[in-house]
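Quick one - first record:
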Amino acid sequence: MGSVSLKIGDGTARFKRATLCSSAVNILMLFSVITTNLFALYAFTFSPKQHLDNPFHHPHRNISLISQHVSLIIKEIDSSQRKLAQMEKELLGYDTLDLSRPNLAAELKLFLQHDQLPLGKDSRTGITEMVASVGHSCEKSADLLSQYTSYKVSGPCPDDWSLAQKLILKGCEPLPRRRCFAKTVPKPGLTSLPVSLWKPVSDKIVTWSGLGCKNFNCLNSKKLSRDCVGCFNLTNGYETQKYVKARSKNDFVMDDVLALGSGGIRIGFDIGGGSGNFAARMAERNVIVITNTLNVDAPHSEFIAARGLFPLFLSLDHRFPFYDNVFDLVHATSGLDVEVITTNLFALYAFTFSPKQHLDNPFHHPHRNISLISQHVSLIIKEIDSSQRKLAQMEKELLGYDTLDLSRPNLAAELKLFLQHDQLPLGKDSRTGITEMVASVGHSCEKSADLLSQYTSYKVSGPCPDDWSLAQKLILKGCEPLPRRRCFAKTVPKPGLTSLPVSLWKPVSDKIVTWSGLGCKNFNCLNSKKLSRDCVGCFNLTNGYETQKYVKARSKNDFVMDDVLALGSGGIRIGFDIGGGSGTFAARMAERNVTVITNTLNVDAPHSEFIAARGLFPLFLSLDHRFPFYDNVFDLVHATSGLDVEGKPEKLEFLMFDLDRILRAGGLFWLDNFYCSDDEKKRALTRLIERFGYKKLKWVVGEKTDAAGSGKPQAYLSAILQKPVRI
């Protein structure tokens, strides 16, 4: 077999690399032959000096020597199988996270345990257990991951954001949640929108550990990227004119671009947005933009959040956590450069062979009748192999971890291609230290390998199957993030979209959302059902309680939004809503110049599309996924009964610590009508909240009549809590 020379690059032949496939395949073949024909090798190659007299010439001598030979053979087979398995994983670009390692942190093992639902199968989603989400490629950085999850429970988290980012860049994404208190940085002087958009950000309110520069003046003197030269200077320089005044024919003026959208641009997504200036200029034009960024060489996330804008903390290898067809605009700069992904793909040839194609059994000779011994040893080896497989399966079940076997014959080729590791064409990256690009996909996909293969079976560059419900089913089973696909998502025409603020309360047409896989086929049907405790008639934007929610209280548990915002002393600009139903909380906040992103899935209803049609942000994530935001960025977090997660108490702990992580010091945690099924649950939640040391600005426990009309009183907890500064 010869070598294959691939000319790769962007059309200018900047990179040229020889890919030698033959050596890897030959070694793979060698180990395969060794594994299946080791008896033959021993029969012809062992030395009499090393093994004393040949026992087969002396049938009456001590047969312990035969036992020794068999033991050596088994050891060789075991060693060969391990080497072969490792080679297969390296060639296929997949590694497994071995949770039986003695030096792996106990918190990591606890986080990854599968939690059975206490009442069995969930009738709406069909799931029977809660599975944590963590990246499948963490094996390459198992020691770093163990370091990241080594901390004192309920103590301060290590100051290791740079370690977290390093893991993300190595494909270990999403990271596991932690049960420790993230370091807080006091953020005095924050102002409301629109003043915050162009007010210089103080050096004192961001984290500089792990960075070369320790202030923004230093950063402005450097070229951080093609799109960030002096980009933290908000008082003078080109950043103040960007998107408003063109310097060349390549620079489009923002107003000209928005005019092309005919007034239908309300929400957008910016990739590689530097310091958030694109989002700032859009905010001035009543368009809400979320900015995807990492903190490579600079505190991008904290800077963007300080301006009252949304930073999304994700690598470009992570499937974007949004539903199909939700954004009116996507903006990308050189940060979209994925050349390293597209220039390193090569074919993997699977080598298969049949033992029948090789030599006949060399032990079978007329004068040396040892075939019976060979048969016995063969049976022993089969038993060992079977036992090892059973033991491995038991270990995986006990540890709650499963591996995705990419050597399965029925696994989609697109899935294997997506998960390949791609070496950087110029070697190690000097800024990040990474040497390869690794795709992100959930580690728990093994339990749904057939569904995942179905999800990745499609015609490349053709239309994607209408299978959003399959995607959501995979997410609910812990297979999160999903792999990206190379097909065109189904589009639904969306006529009649209006600009903010009109869009907030304009009824959404049945025709502009996807109804496949749902019981109801229109919003009238949905409004006649109780979808959850927090969503009864919640898609009715013309009459009913949804139009009064957060403006008029029905009970002492219902806090009026203006009263809550007054507690924030004017520093509430961006918020996060968990279990936000149809987006009414975000809509009311938008009327008060506060931008809120709503975390939701489409369980029983098209929540994401409905929220997006209102000109608001839907984040398509399960509550088992670590929130894709940097520490201390939100001014407010709002949670309803959607925060309730079933299973072990540690499950809710991991979630609460993650919420605490993304909320800034002085920020508000609004617990809104959290349903307490019994006194024990209320006491457990109270004890958990008290561990965080929040200041109780409001705390109300009361009873309300069941919204479904049963007439039974139910206990609810509502609270406004302020996060303290932790040094």
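second record:
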Amino acid sequence: MGRPGLLGLGLAAAIGLPYVTSPDSGLRKWANSAVEKPAATSTAAAAGLSAAGSAPNASHPVTRPEGQPVTHLGEVFRFDVTTGWVLARWPRVTTRLATLDLQGYRVALVTGTKESDLAGSLTYYFNPDQRVQRIAFKGTTGDTRMLVALLSSQFGFVRTATPDPHLHLYQVKEDREVVSELRIHSISTIKSTDPHGRFQVALVIERPSES
């Protein structure tokens, strides 16, 4: 199976949604569902999140990040990590996430308490060679600029035009096929008591071909 097909399956598996087989609309349908129907994770509550993976608010205040502190987003969005590194860094790891020939390790990620920090679920998918093949994140943030800057500079994400005024779309393409994608949806109602929940984020990064 070629890489585009693997991406489609990976996008769905990243958050436990049905895979849409249409080559033209599958990616868009997945990403829309990813934002509209947040997936619950067994570790979300431990990170101070609601079962739906929403951002901390008055009922779910920002808590101390689970696992080792994250000083820069590049510490977690990287492809040179090992399964041992994941297990050592986070006290709770969900591992029954196999898809095709990939094995997923999902953790609750809360990078800090600033508006630019992220809160949600992070999954590393390892290939049979025990190298990270895919990274998936689903969650929220109050300021997307740091995340976008990292993905643009480190992985080559480029903004793509979309007719939806509430959607900011960034993609990486190889041979005109989308291999990685970031979808940022603005929350319809922004509360002053919930500065970390202004944007919903759905991200899948496929291992760069040269890595």
